[in-house]
Amino acid sequence: MAETKPQMKDAYEMILEAIDVGVYRPGDRLVESELAVRFGVSRTPIREALQRLETQSLLTRDGRSLIVASLDHNQLAELYAVRAELEGLAARLAARHAAPEEIRVLNDLIEEDRALLGDPAALSRANRRFHKQIHLASHNRFLVQQLDLVHRSMALLATTSLAVEGRDEDALAEHERIVTAIAAGDGDAAHAALKEHISKAFETRLKHDAAAVEASA
Amino acid sequence: MAETKPQMKDAYEMILEAIDVGVYRPGDRLVESELAVRFGVSRTPIREALQRLETQSLLTRDGRSLIVASLDHNQLAELYAVRAELEGLAARLAARHAAPEEIRVLNDLIEEDRALLGDPAALSRANRRFHKQIHLASHNRFLVQQLDLVHRSMALLATTSLAVEGRDEDALAEHERIVTAIAAGDGDAAHAALKEHISKAFETRLKHDAAAVEASA
DNA sequence: CCGGTTAGGATACCGTGGCATACCCTAGAC
DNA sequence: GTCTAGGGTATGCCACGGTATCCTAACCGG
Fold first, then answer.
1. Is the CB of residue A171 less than 8 Å from the CB of residue A197?
2. I need a labelling partner for A41 at 20 to 30 A (CA). Which of A119, B30, B110, B189 fits?
3. Size of interface A-B (CB pairs under 8 A)
4. How far is the CA of B49 from the C1' of C21 (A)?
5. Chain B contact for A81, CB < 8 A?
6. Which chain A residue shows the shortest CA-CA distance from B47?
């Protein structure tokens, strides 16, 4: 008899998803007992989950209480700098090590992208799968792990840059260039294309954030 | 009145150090209750620590039991590939952002290196401090965090490559080139010098491991 | 009368102990 | 020799108590 809990996963996954979906936003305080009743478990698994999230810098300590980490402008730039480098490496390695089947999957994911133009939420999910597939194609487990961490930190960013007008089509074109380079086994080109892709995404985010500040003033 | 426990740190630090020192070696199984009595604490903090170590891939699950992760040849290569890229990025950023005081500290650390030639254990510790200082000089908190992870994984490797005959002097010369490039603000040179440094260390390790296999045959 | 300091209460975290469960290993029977 | 059943063991969870910290309010000094 399965419980009718919100999720069947463990506490860690549930809290992570809650942050990702936006139930908890940067700056929010997380209280053990509160999470315990929300998810219908005891405080012990909650504690373990919170510690794991803290080691990943998704939560920070403010005094004795844990709050959802927030990224200021500097940290955003730092995050994107590391991301560009690691994604670039993944592309270079993927160009060298990807199996033909993996390249076909990448092409399929691009078709999926094309079908989803104009639906930012769905595009964002498809985008994650696309990048994850490249990470896996690098055939480097440490790199996959590191990139997982980076992408988890990006859950702290509320908006997806794919929601910005025109960004979805540009991103699609960039994806195509990346896969083309990987399929050709051209590591340098794949590296450059992916770094450029991340750079453009960062630029879009900065513009959008600046516009948001403008609008609120 | 302070207890006379082996360490005053928390369970996480204690287990990490035990792995680093070699009390627990790759492949060893870690049992909660066993660690609990060894460190004189209850099972709960042990459990939390083990989970944190598992998320960092220092421990892996074999069935329901946790064992210290071991790195095969492929994983070693993967680890060094990621490390080279991240350390290279750190050097590039350090060349751009390091404060004069930080560069002086780096030069001091090189002097320390020189004084310790021939003492592999001490050199290894000094080496960690040197690289950590470069990470910090990058002024990129995410990069520091990622590199911490990488270096923690290297605790799984029993030997330091600095123990190999002649490697210490080569490493010192390489350190000097790195700091010179950083001090000159030459990001490209610093990047190249550090990548080369990591590459040489990897090469040394491979040679040494091959020789060990030879000897045991 | 206002500001700073201190003391007290409350709240939330950390660690301990114990219980249930699921898995593994072993021994016995077919 | 293989399959099954039973016991043992380690893990996962929970409830509780101690303790450190934070907030608030009252008191004292200026």
1. yes
2. B30
3. 73
4. 23
5. yes
6. A48
- List the Cα angle B138/B153/B166 in 5-degree steps: 80
**pLDDT tens-digit profile of A90-128?**
999 999 999 999 999 999 999 999 999 988 889 999 999
Q: CB distance B81–A93 less than 8 Å?
A: yes
pLDDT at A2 over 60: no
Helices B100-115 & B167-183, crossing angle to 10 degrees? 170
- Token pair of A191, please? 């590296």
- Does residue B142 belong to the interface with chain A, where contact is any CB pair within 8 Å? yes
Cβ within 8 Å, pair A55-B56: yes
Residue B125: Cβ-neighbour burial (10 angstroms; 0-12, 13-18, 19+): middle
Query: Do residue A58 and residue A80 come from a single domain?
Result: no
- The closest CB to that of A51, out of B52, B56, B141, belongs to B52
Q: Is the CB of A47 under 7 A from strand C?
A: yes
Q: Which residue is nearest to nucleotide D14 (CA to C1')?
A: A42
- Mark whether A92 and A181 lie in a shared domain: yes
Q: Are the beta carbons of B141 and A81 separated by less than 8 Å? A: no
Residue B132 lies in a domain: yes
Element (H, E) at B154: none
Q: Is the dihedral of CA B48, A47, B63, A148 positive or negative?
A: negative
Count CA atoms closer than 13 A to A130's CA, side-chain side. Answer: 23
Contact across the interface for B82 and A48, Cβ inside 8 Å:
no
Range of the structural domain that residue A36 is part of: 11-68
**Among A residues 145-174, those touching chain B with beta carbons less than 8 Å apart:** 145-146, 149-150, 153
Within this chain, do residues B163 and B107 fall inside the same structural domain, yes or no?
A: yes
At B3, is the secondary structure helix, strand, or coil? coil
Which pLDDT value is given to residue A112? 93
Counted domains in chain B: 2
Kindly calculate the radius of gyration of chain B based on its CA atoms and give it in whole angstroms. 19
